[in-house]
Fold:
Amino acid sequence: MLYSEHITFPYGQTENTATRLHFRVNRGVINFVWIIFPPGCAGLVKVRLYQEGHPFLPSQKDEFIRGDAYTFKIPVMYEVKGAPEQMTIEGWNEDDTYDHSIDFMFLVLPKWVTWPAYALSTMFERLIALFK
Structure:
């Protein structure tokens, strides 16, 4: 399942006045996250993602992601095990003139699709480590 969110961040924000969007992700494995910064953001829009209130991307609370005319393609292997989990997009726009919109996409696959490949790659890494 592909989750997609389009968020407009008003100009003149700070971290203290950040915009927050909450949504739920169903059971499965979050396999990929895309964060799309269109041209013109000039690094002035800063975003981060939380999973159930804990830093998800980036993994430290005091960090953020920013860009300009760039799509972040982030491979992830996070399992949502039971009930839908709350994800939060938090961001703010330090531009003093223009609003900016950022697109977020999350690919959530069934566990049976992702874990065989993940298990195989982990097994190969461990085998290689044995011969080092």
